[in-house]
Write a structure and sequence with these properties.
It is a single chain. This protein has about 240 residues and is of the alpha/beta class. It has nine helices and seven strands; from the N terminus they run H-H-E-H-E-H-E-H-E-H-E-H-E-H-E-H. A seven-stranded parallel sheet has the order 3-2-1-4-5-6-7. Helix 3 links the parallel strand 1 and strand 2. The longest helix has 18 residues. It is globular, with a radius of gyration of 18 Å. The two termini are about 30 Å apart.
């Protein structure tokens, strides 16, 4: 499956409320000038972003993720937001610091914000800063990645008056018992809240979706969007094959 960011978000927005569906249809029109400068702005500053008016501007998606260190979810996020041939505009918010992918995203022209929620002060101030950012940019869709961002990012997004929230499940759940106690608690808390906070819950695989539904996640909101790969970069190489043999 070739990787292209726009079809993924067309699929996601089909599962959102009617307002997001209308916006996703408008997102197929010609690309318009971007809303960000690629360098980000202080989260506490008043945003200068003009909201989408449904008249053909690109779909604006804010991604909220626990952090931007080296990891599978972080890699998929990077590939998604930097994928070519898409009219979608992306803003990435890290609940931690810039990690490994922050500088790479900025270099690719993606606006990156950090909440630095690694200290007691950051845990208190981070949600407030996120609320101000969301109220300023008024995204069409907020996509959260993994349990921490699903819970915190989802709650703050709804408090900011944005209904089009998509949760992201990035693990099968098979080894959750071996994960931290915090992850297990968050998964248990998110299960009943999946009926209230998100419009759709996106899992990366069928077994991940099935297992989380068994835990109490809303099966009617569950969608599977598989990871994609750029087949123009990953192709058989006869020379290297012969060399390795």
């Amino acid at each position: 499956m070739c990787f292209d960011g726009l079809p993924m978000y067309q699929e996601l927005t089909m599962s959102l409320d009617s307002t997001a569906q209308d916006i996703s249809q408008d997102a197929d029109s010609a690309a318009m000038p971007g809303r960000g400068d690629g360098h980000g702005t202080p989260l506490d500053a008043d945003a200068k972003v003009k909201p989408v008016n449904g008249q053909g501007q690109p779909l604006l998606v804010v991604h909220i993720i626990s952090g931007l260190g080296q990891g599978g979810a972080e890699t998929v996020l990077y590939r998604l937001v930097t994928a070519p041939r898409q009219n979608t505009e992306h803003i990435v918010v890290s609940m931690g610091d810039e990690g490994v992918f922050g500088p790479r995203l900025r270099q690719a022209g993606v606006v990156v914000h950090t909440l630095d929620m690694t200290s007691a002060q950051g845990v208190v101030a981070g949600p407030v800063r996120l609320w101000r950012l969301l109220r300023g940019v008024r995204p069409d869709v907020v996509q959260t990645w993994m349990y921490h961002a699903d819970l915190v990012g989802g709650l703050v997004t709804r408090l900011a008056g944005i209904r089009a929230v998509s949760w992201g499940i990035r693990n099968s759940g098979a080894d959750l018992a071996k994960s931290s106690r915090v992850s297990r608690v968050l998964a248990a808390v998110c299960a009943p809240l999946s009926r209230v906070i998100p419009c759709v819950v996106v899992a990366c695989a069928q077994n991940a979706a099935a297992r989380h539904c068994e835990w109490g996640y809303d099966r009617h909101k569950m969608r599977v969007v598989h990871n994609g790969y750029d087949l123009s970069r990953w192709q058989p190489d006869a020379v290297l094959r012969a060399r390795l043999r």
